[in-house]
Amino acid sequence: PGSRDAALVARVAAGVHMVAAMPARGASRGPLLVDVYDTTAGGGALGNLSARARVAGGGSELIAGFVIRGNAAATVLIRAVGPTLSVFGLAESLRVPRLTLMAGASAIASNAGWATAPNASEIRASAAASGAFALSGAAADSALLVTLPPGAYTAIIAPPDGGAGVALVELYEVR
Predict the structure, then answer these.
(1) In what order do the strands lie in the sheet with 74-81?
(2) Three-state SS across 9-50?
(3) What is the pLDDT of residues 9-57, one digit of tens each?
(4) Is the overall model pTM greater than 0.70, yes or no?
(5) HEC states along the chain?
(6) Which of 12, 61, 80, 163 is most deeply packed, by most CB within 10 A?
(7) Once rounded to an integer, what is the mean pLDDT over residues 114-134?
(8) Phi, psi of 86 (to 5 degrees)
(9) φ, ψ for residue 65 (rounded to 5)?
């Protein structure tokens, strides 16, 4: 009560949906948090989440939090897309998006160049099976394919070289 936060509960049909969140007219800009919850009985209908934002070093990282719930581990594909965004006409993409996966205050995995990951072929196959667009093997987009126990996690996208640009963070549950 009394806050200026916004909330929406909606029943949506299967398919692709987008939430556009921005400061209200006249409001100052700053960090913005968007939460999405599947409130259906049993949950699990949410297949992919993504967010796009301008990224720079020094506190302007793109941060995506997610929770694995239940009692079983889940395999997730997390992607930090920068250079491949130019294929979609976005000229100001982040040249090198470094992806770091956190569990609490601990970094548990990191990648800056998915094609050089030891499991690059599994990343490519999981992306295709999940319906994700293909990443260029020559581009510096980043990705992690990890199996995680239940808990809260954070994916942080930042430029390792001090650059700036637009990045997309994507999260897919791999089944």
Answers:
(1) 48-56, 164-174, 74-81, 142-148
(2) CCCCCCCCCCCCCCCCCCCCCCCCCCCCCCCCCCCCCCCEEE
(3) 888 887 777 777 777 776 666 666 677 777 776 665 567 889 998 898 7
(4) yes
(5) CCCCCCCCCCCCCCCCCCCCCCCCCCCCCCCCCCCCCCCCCCCCCCCEEEEEEEEECCCECEEEEEEECCCCCEEEEEEEECHHHHHHCCCCECCCCEEEEEECCEEEEEECCHHHCCCHHHHHHHHHHHCCCCCCCCCCCEEEEEEECCEEEEEEEECCCCCEEEEEEEEEEEC
(6) 80
(7) 94
(8) -65, -25
(9) -105, 150
Amino acid symbol at 1? P
Q: Could you tell me which residues come within 8 angstroms of residue 61 by beta carbon, excluding any fewer than 6 positions away?
A: 55, 156, 157, 158
Contact residues for 139 (Cβ-Cβ < 8 A; gap 6+): 82, 83, 84
| Single-letter amino acid, residue 6 | A
Token pair listed for 64: 């995506």
Cα 14 to Cα 10: distance, rounded to the nearest angstrom: 12
